[in-house]
Design goal:
Aldehyde Oxidoreductase, domain 3; about 775 residues; globular; Aldehyde Oxidoreductase, domain 4; alpha+beta; 30 strands; five-stranded mixed sheet
Amino acid sequence: MTVATPKFGMGASVLRLEDQAFITGKGRYTDDIAPSGVLHGYVVRSPFANARFTIASVEAAKAAPGVHLVLTGADLGHLRDLTSTSMKRQPDGTKAPTRDIPILCRDQAHYVGDAVAFIVADTRALAQDAADLIEIEYDGLDAAAGTATALDPDAPLVWPELGSNRAFTYRHGDRAKADAAFAKAAKITRIEFRNNRLVANFVETRSALGEWKPDEGRFVLTTGSQGVHSVQKILAGVFGIGRKQLRVVTPDVGGGFGTKIFVYREYALVMEAAKRLGRPVKWTGDRNEHFLTDAQGRDNVAVGQMAMDEKGRFLALKVDLIANMGAYISQYGAEIPHTGTTMSTGVYDIPALDVEVVGVYTNTCPLDAYRGAGRPEAAFLVEKLVDACARDMGLGRDEIRRLNFIRPEQFPYRTPTKRLYDVGEFDGHMTLAMEHAGWKSFEDRLAASKKAGRIRGIGMATYIEACAFPGSEPAFVELNGDGTITLKIGTQTTGQGHATAYAQIVAEKLDIPVDRIVTRQGDTDDLDEGEGTGGSRSIPLGGVSASRAGDALAEKIRRIAADELETSSLDIELHEGAARIVGTDRSMSYADIAKAAKKPDDLQGMGEFVQDEATYPNGTHICEVEIDPETGETEVVGYTIVDDFGVTVNPVLLAGQVHGGVAQGIGQALCEDTVYGDDGQLMTASFMDYAVPRADSFPFFRFGTRNVPSTTNAMGIKGAGEAGTIGAAPAALNAVTDALWRAYGIGHVEMPATPARIWTAIQSATGN
């Protein structure tokens, strides 16, 4: 039995199957869908960060032109809050109580943008006009807005009944062991910094369309998501109904980055309104609402300390982290700093660790997973700290890393937080990246910059992350009557190119052109279960399952062909969409095989790969910058990446994922920042105030891989969706710091390293 190698199987640079529709304007997003009779919703939001309120009357709003419905918290007593289950056990064994998100606030708003009422009208504009007619009396209170000050004795309390803004406390490692290592250290290096808050800013703002189907006795919700089944499960709980009483559909999605995993209150609102009115109801958020209300990312204040011996070997690491949760505990909010800090030791052999994480409530938008979800924060801390250690010890940055890397012979390696790294050759990719980046010739470029009146720096980050966490993602394939193949799977593409990657994997098993394979995602009617997309799990888990499903279907095709051609299935090979007897011209097309099947199951294959441990992508990013000291403006003049992703499915898709992630990481390092005033007002609520990088912000990226296949994953795949973001922020900030250190002895600048911050640091260092 043989299978011919397909032209576009695993490892081939197949161009994306999805793009023809997108570039010709045939994409179909939630806001494009307009069923007959659709009405439009508008959310009335609190203008105060912390306020008690009373709704005196909604009658004028109800009577406004085109208005069909006005809902307040008093109308939704039958709906449950959006409850988080992400709290982990604290050092005393307890789980802290959550503060859940009401569908509409009842008598108090806890951040600017908190939902107070919902209006449904013929158009969004009419609903928005009617919002001004609702009589709401606000009693504004002092707000707690800052992460670093949330635990101050005089800080206003977000939830007074808790007696503190402390949401939870987590710990990792062995405090006594770390203390002993610090006591005997020859040198201790300490850093303190803020990991700035970010807004995801995907291309497509959120939208939701709710429908009630009385003949079916169920809801239909159409919305952009990162997995329909989790949305279905959570909303069924909100409404107190069975999952089958809600169908969730996700069409095309214009970017997710973690932020579209979550269930937001607007989804329940359009469903409730649709049932009450007997007509479809759609809500589409504008960009300002996105800034105000969509779960945000990062926002930590961190202190890191490294104990070293006289040679610069790492003895122990201590981390104290304050993690902002916002006003409520979002879906995975409390889990992000917990999981992230399990990666605190990075790629280094650090014998002892002591991490304390304190979550805090503030009167701000809730925070949750944003691309990398805790792992970028951990990588940034340790990579910034390692650079500071090198300066303190008088060692080269590559030298101190080589001295402390986990060596290949130490694998499998158990970290102090019980993470189990299966494989790794960290010195290998760092050395290769340095060669590609021209590390040794940097001094020549530095001299040229000095001659031009500029300063120059080069920085690196050697990162590792955990992704494709334990679990599974079953895949189902079916041979159709026209000879095409349909793959059904519970992940959700948000721009990554799933249809192409999955098609390549299945094509390799069935030897059929990739454009003859259709991937179906985003409909709870297609599959009963699915874990969705997040944590770079889709291809490592779903891809292996798709491969196994392809194997199962291939075997059934061979059996049918063997019966029809009167031979053994062992003599059947699959070749270019047909099954043939090896060494002959006797064959059957897949369409003919479909006709010959006795029952539907004969044309279906299922595969499921269950992974017991996470995978650990890793790599080295090297960033080179040039800075104008007169203005503080930074230009990224070189960027080099050498990553270890195990096995590559499609180099083109992989490069796209890495490029996008690097852009987001550099954006955090150099320009992006979500700023709240002391009163809790969001000062960066539009692109007028929130800076995002542009295409002309970057040079050409030098990207390559030096892969060591994973032994955890059945196909050796490690995952790549978040890695670019994880490596980029520390590499870029370390490059800026290197330039400032060389020229002025400045060892720290906060992110984002904006021109104003850099210029101010230079002025302070030079006494101007």
